[in-house]
Write a structure and sequence with these properties.
This protein is α/β, with parallel strands linked by helices. It contains seven helices and nine strands. The two termini are 21 Å apart. The mean pLDDT is 95. Bound molecules: S-adenosyl-L-homocysteine (SAH).
């Protein structure tokens, strides 16, 4: 998968993709991640990327021209109907479709080139959304100062699902949400720490019993704090 991030703050991404699973996936050529400065695509002499909103009101709005130019450089067109198969252009936005595990999985399934547009200030000129954007994605019902943290969250959630990204000793199958439940609790050595003991069942080597215990715990925890998952609220795409 190739990922291109458009931002007015490229330094925001310094090193953020250079750790753990994402770093390994980059080194193994499972994913390529490029960050582009929207400002470099501004053509006026002050390289303006934002301007005051028509109709008045607070704040600034990201201008359409540099974003269209960046998309045209990357994709050869800014008309979403003409993108190559497997190309998705995502606008990070609190008004977007909520990011859930099935949404991340859907990008893994049918996207080979992902372009992410990070908004700032009051947001992005609506004509970007109307023409170049194929998906508007929100990472939750709260407002961030910019799309950059949301882009990092989206990339991380997708990359760890790419084939072979997790390596052979780990798997996403039992992670929270993958099977509609939260994950079960995890323990490591020591078996007793400050008087707190690891549940006996995990120490006895009986894999069937361990699996049963994990399923029970996952269900218990999900019922307690995320009942909505049991009602299928996370399954929709
Ligand atoms: N005025 C806008 C918020 C702008 S916040 C509104 O009320 O809808 C500035 C930028 O931060 C947005 O353009 C978007 O790119 C990003 N952003 C803020 N909250 C986000 C969220 N929950 N998910 C994804 N991106 C978000």
């Amino acid at each position: 998968m190739r990922v291109d991030v458009l931002t007015i703050f490229p330094e925001f991404f310094n090193e953020v993709f250079d750790f753990g699973i994402i770093r390994r996936a980059k080194l193994a050529d499972i994913v390529e991640i490029n960050v582009h400065d929207i400002r470099l695509f501004a053509t006026d002499k002050h390289r303006m990327v934002d301007d005051r909103p028509f109709g008045g009101g607070d704040g600034m709005v990201l201008k359409p021209e540099p974003i269209f130019a960046a998309i045209e450089m990357l994709l050869g067109t800014s008309d979403r109907d003409k993108y190559a198969d497997g190309t998705r252009v995502v606008l990070l936005s609190p008004q977007g479709k909520p990011l859930k595990q099935p949404v991340a999985q859907s990008f893994v399934n049918d996207c080979s080139h992902l372009v992410l547009i990070c908004g700032r200030y009051e947001g992005v000129d609506e004509r970007v959304n109307a023409t170049v954007v194929t998906d508007e994605i929100s990472i939750g019902d709260y407002v961030l100062s910019g799309g950059e943290p949301a882009a990092i969250v989206l990339v991380d959630s997708i990359v760890r699902l790419l084939p072979n990204a997790l390596g052979s000793d780990t798997s996403a199958e039992n992670d929270s949400f993958s099977d509609g439940l939260l994950d079960s609790p995890h323990y490591t050595r020591p078996a007793e720490f400050r008087g707190m003991k690891v549940p006996e069942v995990l120490l006895n080597g009986n894999h069937a019993e361990i699996e049963k215990w994990r399923q029970e715990k996952a269900l218990e925890k999900t019922r307690l704090i995320r009942k909505d998952l049991l009602e299928g609220a996370n399954g929709e795409m």
